[in-house]
Design brief:
This protein has 251 residues and is α+β, with helices and mostly antiparallel strands. The protein has five helices and eight strands.
Length: 251
C-alpha cells in the first residue's frame, strides 16, 4: 500500500523469457506472454540503456503521474520515446534468438499495448483518466512470416478479438465463452456492425462503445456524455450528443 510500483527491468524479464525458450521442448508448440514495463510512467530505464533523445531528465519535484509542467513536455516525450526504444531493443533480443535457432519464420508474434499515453492532449498527461482515442487506441501487429502475408487493415478491432484470430489461423475452434471474433479476413460489410466496448476505473469511472464510425462515452464521474464521429473527427473535438439524439440512444 505504499503507492509506489516496483517494476522489474525489462531486460530481466527478457532474460527469463530467453532462459525459458532455451529449455522449451522444440518438438512441441509453445506460447509465451511477455509484459514489458519501460513505457509505463515514470519511464524508468537502466543506467546503461541507450537514450537517443535528450534531454530526458525532468524536475523530479514536479514530475508526477498526475501532472508535470507543460514547459517540460518535450523533455518528457524524449523520456517516453527512449523507453519505447529500449522496449523495442528487448523485443529485438527475442527476435535474434529465434532467428539464431531457426524458429523465427514459424513463430507468430502479436505486439500490442494496453493503453496510449497523453502529453497534454485534452489538457491531460499520462493515462488512466479518459476513454478518448489518445488513450484507448493502441497498436496491434501480428507477424507470422510463413502464414501471414503483409497487409494493413483499417477496421476497428478489440483485444477480445486477438485469441479468436489466433485460433482461426491455427485451425482450431474458438471457445464458446469468447466474446471476440476473428479478424483474419477483412470484413468491409461488417465494419460498424461489431461493437467494441471499453471501460475505465480508478481515478475516473467511464464506459464507452464504438460502432464505427460513432463512439459514445458515458463519464460516470462527471455525469457527462459524449458522442463522436471518428471518421470525420478523429481528435474527438465535436460532441454530437445533442445533435445525433437517435444515434446516441441506440448506442
Amino acid at each position: 500500500d505504499s503507492g509506489v510500483e516496483k517494476i522489474v527491468p525489462d531486460s530481466a524479464t527478457v532474460d527469463r523469457a530467453l532462459e525459458w525458450l532455451a529449455h522449451a521442448d522444440a518438438s512441441k508448440p509453445w506460447a509465451l506472454y511477455i509484459n514489458l514495463q519501460a513505457g509505463h510512467f515514470p519511464y524508468t530505464l537502466e543506467d546503461d540503456a541507450q537514450r537517443p533523445w535528450l534531454p530526458d531528465t525532468p524536475t523530479w519535484s514536479t514530475f508526477s503521474y498526475l501532472g508535470f509542467p507543460k514547459s517540460e513536455k518535450d523533455l518528457v516525450v524524449n523520456r517516453y520515446d527512449n523507453a519505447l526504444h529500449y522496449a523495442d531493443s528487448q523485443i529485438g533480443r527475442l527476435r535474434s534468438y529465434l532467428d539464431k535457432v531457426g524458429k523465427l519464420d514459424d513463430t507468430m508474434w502479436i505486439l500490442t499495448s494496453d493503453h496510449g499515453e497523453m502529453f497534454f492532449e485534452k489538457g491531460l498527461v499520462t493515462h488512466g483518466k479518459t476513454l478518448y482515442e489518445i488513450e484507448a487506441r493502441v497498436p496491434l501487429i501480428m507477424v507470422w512470416p510463413k502464414h501471414i502475408a503483409p497487409d494493413r487493415r483499417d477496421e476497428p478491432v478489440s483485444h477480445l478479438d486477438i485469441l479468436p484470430t489466433v485460433f482461426d489461423y491455427l485451425g482450431l475452434q474458438p471457445h464458446p465463452s469468447w466474446q471476440g471474433r476473428s479478424f483474419r479476413s477483412a470484413d468491409p460489410d461488417g465494419v460498424g456492425k461489431h461493437a467494441i466496448f471499453m471501460n475505465i476505473q480508478g481515478l475516473r469511472f467511464a464506459d464507452a462503445i464504438v460502432c464505427w464510425p460513432y463512439k459514445l462515452i458515458l463519464e460516470r464521474t462527471t455525469k457527462k456524455a459524449y458522442l463522436f464521429d471518428l471518421a470525420h473527427d478523429a481528435h474527438e473535438n465535436v460532441n454530437l450528443i445533442k445533435d445525433e439524439v437517435e444515434t446516441a440512444a441506440q448506442l
